[in-house]
């Protein structure tokens, strides 16, 4: 049994996998058992609780399961000793999570109601007056749990505002922060609910603020509507109300915010901003006193809250001067040497989305704020010393800035940006590593996204990239990716086409000395991509390919990969609209490959393409070669996939046979209910010598040379759902070829786990009929077309399994059978054939047991049966016999054995020992 | 303003990835589901998260030169938020996922999105993002300390072991209540708050008892890029931090620290202050490096009234523009056959105190064979060739000579057949000298904290300690005959 630590860590790693071996009910029951157990120590209990705390819905999938579990935990909590403070906290946390997540709170279950009262009771003990400092952390957790409940079910505490306000005032320990946050959350939600109501008057508002009643259980729907209210359309209370009390409450909260930690301060500020937005009678000016402190803050969450305030109140709180100052501040922070990188990048995002007092576009679409000018962003120019993310962020921002400003200025900034791209490419050229490479291409993408319309810059980039490629052809995948993405973004831009054209020229004009087998692979990838462009003439590509095939030893090097890559280019060329103009050259190329390329597969495909080219019109070629749509659920194996031999990942997965880690299938022997003795016919046969006839039969080749064993083919018991339905199963057997002929493969069309097993007949052709073991394996196909290989458990073929009844013609009378027996016996005893031998096997047994034993083991092989005497004949293919003459003596049973192959005797012996194991025997 | 899940992962150059810690907040997930409705994408299981993060961070499969899913150029890592492609075919995306990567350590969290997820909202419109960033930053400080070094595995393990109980207090239900304590800054045993009428600040868990001591340390870092080239502008900039440790009695004691500049000193810019500063004068924040200042800008004194937390903290930080770099250098390289001729001259500015704690010049030679014969003379200090044979270290000691100028001249033969390490920024004649130095009791901006200007309003008279120092950071002198990378934008527009 694995330890709880291991089980819990494997649960956390993947709850779904963990529960595939057990059920959530079982696991939950085990957990609760251990939690109730007094012998479990607190630390272990806390570990167990973490499962419930973090994955409540996995273990309690229904509300009722959640309710029961919560009830259990509450009773455990009640019995937990006062000293186990930490355990208590974890229990409270787990119960809260369960009740919230399993809708125990929204459906107002009894346990939720009682629990809420319990939590509320806990927080009454302000300043730990009665419970003492030991309960301080329990109270802290209770506060947080109540706040989380209020957050998930807004309005729950809306009738308790007065009481909460009082508690907040009372508390002077560090927990006053928790009380303040709880109160603020409840107040905000209460105001929001109020603002959505009709006919709100002073009385209603006063009632809400002075509320000291029970919990407000609302329908889940109201709660949901309050929870997901969009701050873009804030509901407002009527202007005419008296907000004096509310204002003083808010002012006090704001004044005391200094005593809070930065994250809580930020949350409080946001809460207050939302409230002021809902209350038109309170001016945003109440925040004025806090602004300077906030403008100067190092803390990202406080700066963010300030920006939220800015977006909410715009010019009713921030003058144009303030606004400019704040933006300048943001730019300064986006590059401040003492801030962390993620924060600086976040500030750059904040600059892009700066909430201006007078934005140009009111819609949500992304556009640069008017105030962000080239002058302002001067310090944000990217450099090669920046980390990738910072660099790309700055680059993107600066591109946007200079795109806007380009008409007015002299282009110096833009010039710098292109210089920066060139500097990046230079580091790539200096073997700058993968990250530099990827970053450089991302920067180029951003640049082209904004400036692809500027001919001279785009051209400069093409030139530089081409130069880079000629020295670093391993960049081919990146370059192809860049052209693809640019083409996707801009239908009309010709940048990608121009760039591919340049790459094509670069490759076809490359001096032969620079071509290696490796670089050729990359060039062919590029040329294949170039061949997809209808606007690019392809004649030079074909000439290049023909040239390298004819004038190098490429054909003799028989590289399948290179051959395939060339054929991929050809395949794209076959679909090119200018096919007619290059018909002859392409035909030459394909013919050359089909004759000269020393790889049969490549030859065949070249021949196939040649046939397609010379027999089909371009339109039909397009239809046949068009790519199979990818991503469809069923991947149709169309002609196109046959005609494509691109070594794509998809195809290689079809070609690959995957190896199953463990056995998937097995063979189970079908127990032959011992076949009945052939019904003897009463009439006497014509008076021929039956023994001679019998002997004569063996002259026919293959006569009675096979043993057929029957098995069920089934799945192994361990389940792997991937293999539940498998098809075209090919069973392959390996045998000891010194004793047996090879066994033919067996094909089974399909096998489903939920259906009957398949019967399989394995035919063995013994050379020497000894016991043996078959090693079996299978190749099969899954529903998704993947092929798999698996080994089967070995199949043991025991000695008696090779026994056959003597192959006499049907309907031979018993008498004649006995005659045959005697003739073989006599021959064997007289040493005919020479390998013949006789032997004796004795054992003790009672008479009943003997007849039982004979019936059980020799049924079907018995030739004659008299009182105390039996004759048994086993035939062993291809031509051997084992004869038993059994006589029951006074104190032992004698088995006289005769055989025409003495080498069988040890097996006969062990077989007899085996079946008479319970009797004492002497041989 | 909450987070849905938090992870700490370790990896070794993209391999042997391990989820060292994970925490899920189901009630926040419950809220996320309510907000997003049909668009909700749940947080993937821990066993999947590692690969998703590594792939998105570009760290997965480090041996493979190109993987479309990892290296696509249109896939922009332009913000601190990643997008994880979850689900079997990656058609669903989990966004935003905030990350901090430090060495082999990855910290990640998923902040709650409280607005409709479609169309995708901007990052600044999500309240939880900054909370998530702050939490990750403080988690980084908790695990790694403030030095910015990735801790040793055993140290990391012991810090991770205490993380659950710390999070129980800091973030029990996914809403951060505080930042995590920074390792190395954990305060000693404290007396609990007095429990009087005065509310105890939430960021101060107790009060100090004992002798009152206030230490104020001012550290300035100087960065420089010197090209020795007409077409490229030399750069140097300074940034400073004031760190305080205040052991003063009382729940909310008042302390004021004042920074002063010498006459004609250029104003302190981009000042950022700690949240414990109670009030700020607007003039303090006016100077900014973003736009040029006129001479009339406020130049002190800078008063910072605050009530100190118990642990050491960064009271404020600033940047400054100083007229000259402390050390002006020139570097000339000439390549001949398989040896390099080099000459370096370093001049200490007359305004700088000639008393270093240490001063070293490093001359790396990357993308070359290993160093063979080194034939170099220096006018001062000692030379040493590193064990790896690709770095020359010039120890200048505590003092420059009277002339305040030192030089190095000679040639290096690169004879070895073994190739040394590579660096794309430093190839052929693109090479640099990097300076490392520390000067006690000096600031370049001239900024100082006068011991008598520190005011503490408390019954006992405290001991006050003030220090200051200048430290180099990224101090490069590029070879003037090579093609050095530019590190700033256009200067005039």
Overall number of domains of chain B: 3
Specify Rg of chain A, calculated over alpha carbons: 44 Å
**Count of alpha and pi helical runs of chain A:** 38
Residue-averaged pLDDT of chain B: 87
The percent range for helix content of chain A is: 40-55%
State the share of residues found in helices of chain B, binned by percent. 10-25%
Task: Give the end-to-end Cα distance of chain B, rounded to a whole number of Å.
Answer: 42 Å
Total beta-strand segments of chain A? 15
Percent of sequence in beta strands of chain A: 5-15%
- Rounded mean pLDDT score of chain A: 85
Distance linking N and C termini of chain A: 50 Å
Strand adjacency order, main sheet of chain B: 9-11-7-6-22-19-14-17-16
Q: Using DSSP, what is the number of strands of chain B?
A: 22
Largest sheet of chain B: 9 strands, mixed
Sketch the major β-sheet of chain A. 6 strands, mixed
Query: Roughly how many Å is the radius of gyration of chain B?
Result: 26 Å
Range of strand content of chain B? 35-45%
Shape estimate of chain B: globular
List the chains of the largest interface with their residue counts: A-B, 140 and 120 residues
Structural class of chain B: mainly beta
Looking at how many chains there are and whether they match, the oligomeric state comes to heterodimer
InterPro entries (chain B): AP2_Mu_C_sf, AP5M1, MHD
Protein name (chain B): AP-5 complex subunit mu-1
Membrane topology (chain B): Peripheral membrane protein
Keywords (chain B): Cytoplasm, Endosome, Lysosome, Membrane, Protein transport, Transport
């Amino acid at each position: 049994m694995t330890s709880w630590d291991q089980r819990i860590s494997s649960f956390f790693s993947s709850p779904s996998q963990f529960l595939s071996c057990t059920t959530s009910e079982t696991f939950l029951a085990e957990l609760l058992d251990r939690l109730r157990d007094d012998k479990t120590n607190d630390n272990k209990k806390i570990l167990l609780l973490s499962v419930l705390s973090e994955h409540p819905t996995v273990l309690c999938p229904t509300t009722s399961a959640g309710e029961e579990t919560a009830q259990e935990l509450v009773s455990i909590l009640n019995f937990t000793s006062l000293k186990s403070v930490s355990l208590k906290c974890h229990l409270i946390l787990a119960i809260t999570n369960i009740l919230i997540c399993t809708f125990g709170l929204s459906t107002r279950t009894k346990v939720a109601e009682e629990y809420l009262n319990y939590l509320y009771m806990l927080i009454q003990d302000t300043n730990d007056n009665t419970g003492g400092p030991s309960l301080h952390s329990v109270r802290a957790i209770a506060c947080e749990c109540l706040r989380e409940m209020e957050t998930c079910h807004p309005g729950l505490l809306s009738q308790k505002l007065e009481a909460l306000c009082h508690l907040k005032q009372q508390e002077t320990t560090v927990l006053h922060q928790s009380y303040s946050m709880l109160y603020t959350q409840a107040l905000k939600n209460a105001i929001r609910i109020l603002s959505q109501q009709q006919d709100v008057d002073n009385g209603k508002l006063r009632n809400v603020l002075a509320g000291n009643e029970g919990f407000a259980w609302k329908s889940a729907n109201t709660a949901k509507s309050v929870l997901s209210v969009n701050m873009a359309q804030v509901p407002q209370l009527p202007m005419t109300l008296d907000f004096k009390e509310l204002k003083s409450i808010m002012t006090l909260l704001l004044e005391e915010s200094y005593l809070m930690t930065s994250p809580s301060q930020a949350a409080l500020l946001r809460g207050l901003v939302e409230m002021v937005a809902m209350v038109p009678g309170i001016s945003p000016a109440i925040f004025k006193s806090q602004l300077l402190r906030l403008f100067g803050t190092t803390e990202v969450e406080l700066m963010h809250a300030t920006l939220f305030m800015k977006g909410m109140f715009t010019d009713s709180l921030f003058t144009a001067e303030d606004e400019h100052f704040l933006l300048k501040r943001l730019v300064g922070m986006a590059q401040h040497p003492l801030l962390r990188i993620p924060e600086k990048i976040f500030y750059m995002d904040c600059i892009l989305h700066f909430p201006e007092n007078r934005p140009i576009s009111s819609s949500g679409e992304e556009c640069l704020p008017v105030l962000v000018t080239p002058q302002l962003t001067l310090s944000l120019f990217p450099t090669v010393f920046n980390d990738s993310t910072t660099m790309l962020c700055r680059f993107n921002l600066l591109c946007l800035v200079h795109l806007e400003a380009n008409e007015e200025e002299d282009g110096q900034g833009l010039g710098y940006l292109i210089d920066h791209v060139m500097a990046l490419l230079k580091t790539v050229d200096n073997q700058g590593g993968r990250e530099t490479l990827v970053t450089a291409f991302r920067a180029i993408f951003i640049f082209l996204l904004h400036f692809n319309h500027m001919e001279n810059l785009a051209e400069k980039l093409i030139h530089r990239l081409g130069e880079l490629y000629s020295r670093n052809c391993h960049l081919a995948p990146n370059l192809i990716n860049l052209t693809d993405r640019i083409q996707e973004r801009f239908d009309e831009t010709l940048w990608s086409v121009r760039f591919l054209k340049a790459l094509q020229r670069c490759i076809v004009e490359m001096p032969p000395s620079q071509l290696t087998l490796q670089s050729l692979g990359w060039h062919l990838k590029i040329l294949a991509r170039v061949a997809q462009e209808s606007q690019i003439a392809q004649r030079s590509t074909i000439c290049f390919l023909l040239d390298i095939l004819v004038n190098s030893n490429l054909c003799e090097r028989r590289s399948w990969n290179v051959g395939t890559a060339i054929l991929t280019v050809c395949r794209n060329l076959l679909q090119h609209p200018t096919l007619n103009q290059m018909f002859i050259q392409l035909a030459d190329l394909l013919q050359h490959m089909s004759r000269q390329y020393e790889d049969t597969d490549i030859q065949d495909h070249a021949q196939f393409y040649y046939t397609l080219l010379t027999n089909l019109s371009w339109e039909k070629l397009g239809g046949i070669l068009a790519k199979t749509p990818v991503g469809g659920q069923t991947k149709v194996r169309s002609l196109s996939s046959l005609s494509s031999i691109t070594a794509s990942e998809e195809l290689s997965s079809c070609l690959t046979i995957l190896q199953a880690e463990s056995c998937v299938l097995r063979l189970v022997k079908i127990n032959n209910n011992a076949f009945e003795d052939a019904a003897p016919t009463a009439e006497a046969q014509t008076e021929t010598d039956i023994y001679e006839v019998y002997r004569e039969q063996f002259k026919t080749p293959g006569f009675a040379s096979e043993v057929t064993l029957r098995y069920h083919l089934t799945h192994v018991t361990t389940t792997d759902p991937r293999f539940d339905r498998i098809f075209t199963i090919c069973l392959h057997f390996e045998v000891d070829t010194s004793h047996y002929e090879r066994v033919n493969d067996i094909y089974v069309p399909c096998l489903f786990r939920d259906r009957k097993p398949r019967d399989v007949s394995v035919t063995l052709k013994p050379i020497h009929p000894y016991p043996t073991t078959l090693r079996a394996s299978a190749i099969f196909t899954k529903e998704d077309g993947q092929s798999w290989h698996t080994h089967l458990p070995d199949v043991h073929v025991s000695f008696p399994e090779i026994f056959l009844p003597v192959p006499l013609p049907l309907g031979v009378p018993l008498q004649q059978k006995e005659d045959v027996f005697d003739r073989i016996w006599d021959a064997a005893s007289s040493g005919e054939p020479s390998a013949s031998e006789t032997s004796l096997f004795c054992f003790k047994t009672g008479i009943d047991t003997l007849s039982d034993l004979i019936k059980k083991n020799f049924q079907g092989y018995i030739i004659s049966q008299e009182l105390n005497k039996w004759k048994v004949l086993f035939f062993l293919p291809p031509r051997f016999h084992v004869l038993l003459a059994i006589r029951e003596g006074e104190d032992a049973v004698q088995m006289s054995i005769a055989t025409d192959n003495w080498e069988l005797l040890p097996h006969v012996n062990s077989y007899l020992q085996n079946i008479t194991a319970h009797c004492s025997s002497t041989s | 303003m909450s987070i849905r899940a938090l992870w700490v992962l370790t990896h070794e150059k993209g391999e042997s990835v391990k989820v060292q810690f994970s925490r899920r907040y189901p009630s926040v997930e419950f809220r996320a589901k309510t907000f997003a409705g049909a668009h909700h994408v749940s947080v993937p299981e821990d066993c999947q998260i590692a690969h998703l993060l590594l792939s998105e961070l570009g760290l997965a499969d480090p041996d493979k030169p190109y993987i479309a899913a990892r290296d696509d150029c249109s896939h922009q890592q332009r913000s601190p938020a990643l997008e994880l492609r979850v689900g079997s075919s990656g058609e669903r995306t989990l966004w935003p996922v905030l990350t901090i990567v430090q060495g082999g350590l990855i910290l990640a969290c998923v902040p709650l999105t409280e607005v409709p997820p479609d169309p995708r909202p901007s990052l600044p419109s999500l309240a939880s993002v900054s909370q998530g960033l702050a939490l990750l930053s403080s988690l980084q400080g908790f695990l790694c300390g403030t030095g910015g070094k990735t801790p040793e595995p055993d140290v990391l393990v012991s810090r991770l072991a205490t993380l659950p109980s710390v999070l129980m207090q800091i973030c029990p239900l996914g809403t951060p209540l505080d930042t995590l304590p920074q390792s190395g800054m954990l305060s000693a045993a404290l007396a609990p708050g007095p429990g009087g009428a005065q509310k105890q600040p939430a960021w101060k868990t107790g009060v100090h008892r004992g002798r009152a001591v206030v230490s104020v340390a001012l550290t300035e870092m100087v960065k420089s890029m010197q090209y020795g080239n007409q077409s490229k502008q030399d750069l140097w900039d300074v940034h400073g931090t004031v760190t305080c440790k205040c052991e003063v009695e009382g729940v909310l004691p008042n302390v004021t620290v004042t920074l002063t500049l010498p006459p004609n000193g250029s104003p302190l810019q981009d000042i950022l202050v700690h949240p414990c500063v109670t009030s700020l004068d607007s003039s303090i924040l006016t100077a900014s490096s973003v736009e040029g200042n006129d001479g009339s800008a406020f130049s002190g004194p800078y008063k910072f009234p605050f009530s100190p937390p118990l642990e050491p903290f960064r009271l404020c930080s600033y940047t400054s523009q100083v007229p000259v770099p402390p050390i002006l250098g020139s570097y000339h390289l000439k390549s001949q056959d398989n040896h390099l001729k080099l000459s370096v001259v370093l001049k200490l500015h007359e305004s700088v105190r000639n008393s270093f704690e240490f001063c070293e010049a490093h001359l790396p030679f990357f993308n070359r064979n290993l160093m063979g014969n080194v034939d170099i003379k220096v006018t001062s200090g000692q030379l040493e060739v590193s064990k790896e044979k690709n770095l020359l270290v010039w120890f200048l000691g505590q003092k420059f000579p009277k002339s305040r100028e030192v030089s190095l001249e000679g040639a290096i033969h690169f004879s070895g057949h073994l190739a040394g390490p590579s660096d794309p920024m430093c190839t052929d004649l693109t090479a640099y000298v990097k300076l490392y130095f520390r000067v006690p009791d000096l600031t370049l901006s001239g900024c100082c904290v006068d011991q008598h200007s520190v005011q503490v309003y408390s019954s006992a008279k405290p001991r006050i300690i003030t220090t200051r120092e200048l430290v180099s950071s990224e101090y490069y002198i590029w070879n003037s005959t090579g093609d050095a990378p530019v590190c700033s934008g256009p200067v005039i527009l």
